[in-house]
Amino acid sequence: MGDAGDDNSRLDDMESHIAHQDGAIQDLSDMVLKQWDAIKALSADVKRLEEQLHALEDEVATGPGATPGEEPPPPHY
Question: Are 32 and 43 in contact (CB under 8 A)?
Answer without folding.
Answer: no
